[in-house]
User: Fold these one by one.
Assistant:
Number 1:
Amino acid sequence: MNSVLIGASTTMASMPTSAEHLALAHSAQLRGVNLSYGEKPVLRQLDWQLLPGQVIGLLGRNGAGKTTLLETLLGLREPSSGEVQLFGQPAQRLDDAVRARIGYVPQQSTLFEAFTARQLLAYFKSFYPRWNEAKVEGLLSRWELPLDQQIGRLSGGQQQRLSIVRALAHDPDLLVLDEPVASLDPVGRRDFLRELVEQVLERGTTVVFSTHILSDLERVAFNVAFLREGRIALQAPLDELQEQLRVGTGTPAELAALQQRLQAELLRRTPLDAGRERWLLRLPQAPLAGEAARELPAMNLEDLFMELS
Ligand code: ADP
């Protein structure tokens, strides 16, 4: 699309006062990250912060770079430049204590196919000082996972659930899930994600999960981050985005008047025919929002995704 993303504003907490504070205050912190596969740039000067207790849905089209970003965040891929920190440590050189605070559910895990679920969990338990047996047993029985069948013979959805049980078992402080519901029945996807998030909310766990399916986010993700053209184009609470983002069309003069009247921030403008343009605007918080809402209709999730990804 021939459009320009003008603002990349976020609604983050107040700025920390020193570099040290900055590192410790975040569960994860990426600064100026670049990563290419051969000639193909995937992450471009990407900045991103995950704050403790945030639940973030990472949205982007297929191929936008979500898996690459999550792997880079976890220190599994080395960026060509930039800085990635987890709990204040460089992601490529984490000590065991920080490693034990992280849970990761990859998109596909084909390891351990000859193990049973029981063997797999016993194996992982031996690595972690903290292991929540009651949680493991509760999830295994609620999700009806067969414990004594070879993992290779479980369905894709069952394997994914087992991978999630494994990632939750040591009560991580940061839980990273790459398309965690991809193999699940579409009907149950959102409810399952919601249950998953509820599992970790009371501990204040930071959760980030990627998806390209919008309905996964409804009632699950408190924050959404849009990965577009190698950067986090926008991150904000989902309900706030739905309240504040609007699309309008007209001439540049009409835009100027509208912006002034509504005090709206221009996020993107796309040229149309005959000197007209299409704008993506962000309204200020109430009280002006009420007036603006009558002029520019609200967007549903599909529209939001189309505009931002
Ligand atoms: P997403 O998870 O958003 O679908 P990915 O991170 O998997 O995106 O991929 C981003 C882009 O990088 C895609 O164009 C993909 O084809 C390419 N890509 C991913 N992994 C590799 C790799 N190991 N080598 C080369 N290209 C890759």
Number 2:
Amino acid sequence: MIQRPRRNRKSASVRSLVRETQVGVNDLIFPLFLLEGSKKKIEVDSMPGIFRLSTDLLLKEIESCLALGIHAFDVFPVVGENYKDKTATKSFDANFFYQKSLALIKNTFPEITLMTDVALDPYSSDGHDGIVDENGVILNDATLEVLGKMALVQAEAGADVIGPSDMMDGRVEHIRRVLDAHGHEHVSIMSYTAKYASAFYGPFRDALDSAPKSGNKKTYQMDPANSSEALIEAELDEMEGADFLMVKPALAYLDIIKSLQQHSNLPITAYNVSGEYAMLKAAGEKGWLDYDKVMEETLLSIKRAGADIILTYHAKEMAQKLKNI
Ligand code: PBG
């Protein structure tokens, strides 16, 4: 035999020389769940190891992540039912606890990349990402107005990267215009470009208590059966001024990550979502899988598919692991 591929696998040293993909701490964004008040820490039942934290404890969490090298965070608010209404007015109220906490976080840690989510669902009494009319229709253009106002107060509070996650048409362009008109031309947009109508978001909706009160999200989030449509969304987001494109979820959509990476020169982010985290945790807790190993293999697969950046609940554990190597 002339060709023996096993020669390149013969030792840890040779394997590391020929290794094509690595996951580094600089690739990771850590999602955090913010609670109103102080000294509050509530674990998410379906996401063991992930906590909803009040601002004081969330600041401590960021500090401990910084010590591990994680420097990018996506903060989601847990909004009390009493604050929710049809047009998500708390989402653009600069005095609401979320926006005030964002400012505190950014003032405390100016060096971090602070990302925020732009969508109505955490603040909406309907639990939908857009405004719902009396017939149950999700209104696109009326929703854009709210998204623009929400992005603006978040930018004013100190957000570095705005993450529109609602899948309304034209949102990137609208948000870009609003931000620029108010002097926020340096605030980035990480568009949830190909966001699928997925059942893998279940644990996240538990964490935020944000599940739709009626119907589903299929008229705005993408059909899991489609891939060409992801390219249409990517082209539009690029034209509308997105700085990053995102695919979400990650694991059942590795082909979409690959195809966006091949078609766009923008950085590609993959959102390794709550249900994907929950699966590994559950199997690990039962002793059915080696959690540490499958976590690393999972993150590697997402990078190998073509993602530059991974939003993941595993970020802290992965950073810990990288530090111990
Ligand atoms: C809100 C939003 C969702 C997620 C991120 N932003 C839920 C949804 O669209 O229903 C899901 C994240 C996760 O599952 O980890 N628009």
Number 3:
Amino acid sequence: MDIGALKGIGPKTEKIFKNTGIMTTDDLISYYPFRYDVIKRSDISKLLDDDKIIIDGLVETRPNVFFFNKKMNKMSFKINIGTHLINVVIFNRGYLKNKIDIATKLTLIGRYDKMKNTIVASEIRFGMLPNIPVIEPIYHQIGSITSNQIRMFINNINDFSVIEYVPDYLKEKYKLIDKKEAIIDIHNPNSELELKKGLAYLKYEELFLFMLRMNSLRLNKKNKIGLKRNVDRALVDKFINGLPFKLTEDQALSVDKIFNDLNSETRMNRLIQGDVGSGKTIVAIIALYINYLSGYEGALMAPTEVLAFQHYNNLKKIFDGYNINIELLSGSLKQKEKKDIYKRLEKKEIDIIVGTHALFSRDVVYNNLGLVITDEQHRFGVNQRSNLKNKGVTPDILYLSATPIPRTYALTIYGDMDVSSIKTMPSGRRNIITYLKKNSEIKDVLSLMYEEIKKGHQIYVIAPLIEESDKIDLENVNKLEEKMTSAFGKVCKIGVMHGKMDSKAKDKVMEEFKNGDISILISTTVIEVGVDVKNATMMVIFDAYRFGLSQLHQLRGRVGRNDIQSYCVLISDRETNRLDVMTKTNDGFKISEEDFKMRGSGDIFGVRQSGDMNFKLADFKADYNILLKARDDTLYLIESKKIENYPKLVKLLDDSINLD
Ligand code: ADP
Ligand code: MG
């Protein structure tokens, strides 16, 4: 059913959904919650400061509302929870003032400030809590459509269709429920057990399809003969020597491997992995050059338009003076321009083509494609439906990944794909010195910041992450802004960025930070991906314990982008293993290893970290044990040829980007 036809959805909402690719009710039902709230009365005596709290009681005093400006107000009152009174503070609900009277029954959800005996509420509900706990799904907001609205719309869906990919015998083996039931359960769990069962099916299916794809790639490769080329190594070395820098040891090693792969008869199927900034791109470019020298076309595929454009510019610059035709196939091109590129590709007038997965849309026919490089493993996505039409040979394949995985795990996940790891960072890069501080040590933090400001450097400050409510996020950002302004307001300009700003306002702040007008940027985690400000040398993260390890690593990676010493300050009153790891190492491989080790420790109600491989529910580190099962199961299916009994799976493999 078209999303616009669903009960409750007007033209405006329809448009927002459709702009994000949710066209039908089936699409909406596969938009999964990223977290759950367990609505159950908190035992206040057991709460720590800043813990999440859910409490009900009777209003004791009439609310006071204080207006900051047109958009912001703060309401406060006292509530009697039976044993004692607590203060309640809630932002931007001034309009409820008249509904809240003495003895009104209320439920409040928020954070508990133990010192002040105050709940900073993000949600207020009329009525008392039910006696049994309620599990409530929380969705990432879509544009202005809130989690609550999404939940309501999903509940309005009467029926939907699914394709169940997991074969029956495996469902039996793991006692998995039907997919349809699983989907209903994760949107509307009646109990923790139901939620677990729902997640079990869906996670397994995701990892099963992923491993099916990986294993089929690997088994296909065995009987695939690739291109034999005869490239003069001296020409390659000449190109490398002409670069503005010397390759690191690991880069040079990767280049050697690629050179041998390309010159040998077996088809190349290699993955290069390394942290962001480790210099994978230049290795890819050298591979493209080798491929060019042997007379074939090369394609470089990036996950986003922005990255594709960046690669394109980079290639243009590096190959300036070489007679190499490079083109960008961008989604924003006019139909006519696209057609023109298609034509030239077919006629072999383009040597290197850069783009998103549009490179593999059905309209594109290559003349003699010799090498395909995919940045950030894009092609592993099982949902990509397209086909590569290549008139020539089977191209060699190179993948780039910024999600480093230690060797032992990589072997499992990538099968016998060849893996090169770039562990050494380009010379001149220094380790980012990482400090762990408590909130009570804020003075130390401010003086560390001041040192950087004095040097003319810039600083990111990440406000506490509270996913349940934009309003609390806003409050945190505002509080921090006050703090920072009182410390640095006279010395430098401070900028603020948060989820409630529209993209124009965000762009403006980002621009001011990039050109150095703003010295301190306070932000929730919405800092755009790919932000690269070389002069930023310090990352300060408040309530760092709330972040996952790879998130912390990624945030820290925004500084240390040149040869100036950079710093990261993690502020947390709670000590965690993760924070320790962060202070001890900068090495993405080690950090990844720790993530694997802590697997299984994530509880089902926790926030999902933004997935490394674009899984919707599974996390290949936390759910590594499921992945191992999926690996064995899919290997068996393919090797025993049993897969032929499952046309759905065969079709899926045929449909995913096919480089064969
Ligand atoms: P990533 O691995 O994240 O793709 P890039 O390839 O974008 O990293 O490299 C990051 C930066 O380091 C780029 O500006 C690049 O020009 C530079 N760089 C790459 N290799 C070296 C090197 N061997 N020496 C110095 N700088 C390098
Ligand atoms: Mg890159």
Number 4:
Amino acid sequence: MKNCKIFQETAVILSVIFLFFLLLMRTFSDRETRTAGDTETVSAENASPATLPQIALTFDDGPSRQYTPALLDGLKERGVPATFFLIGKNIEGNEDLVLRMQEEGHLIGNHTYNHVELDRVTAETAREEIERTGNRIYEITGVYPTYIRPPFGAWKKNLELSVSMLPVLWDIDTLDWKSRNADSIVAIVEANAADGSIILMHDGYESSVVAALRVVDLLTSQGYEFVTADTFLVT
Ligand code: NI
């Protein structure tokens, strides 16, 4: 009987110790779960840093056999995307540059075939100018452009309804075609740059290419992120 009692007591003690360990283990595992949860919360906060101000470089009237390659080289070196609004008649012989734009992450848009003022031609001509250019870009890249920069900023009312394209204007006009002066172009951008700005330039001038890359370096150092123009237009 005595042995039996000792056995029972031992069994009770062992059970208590076992329960104690169970409780202890649960406490630790709870703590680990909580720690893991806390860590997740922290990393989620870290994953969304304060948004950088964004800005878009746009280049009209290209491609230019003479100057576009240097611009593409400089943008690639800096890992910066831009938007190119191409004149249809300038594409011939420069198909490789159009393909390069696409391959290197730039957005390609339409700038009509003959650089016409869309509000001064018939609706039919306007549509032809746009579609002919869109088709050339599609034949090369496999992507039909969705955005158009109307030459001279002249848009025909409701034209977007018949051509299914969105016009993209600008808010910083560098007047690069007029000044042909890199210092002047950079100064205009520096004075007007803001979050959401769309900068208008032309890749057919050496001064514009030099200025564009200086603008990229300057605004990057100020914390700007360069994006394609559709970033500000997609709703
Ligand atoms: Ni133009």
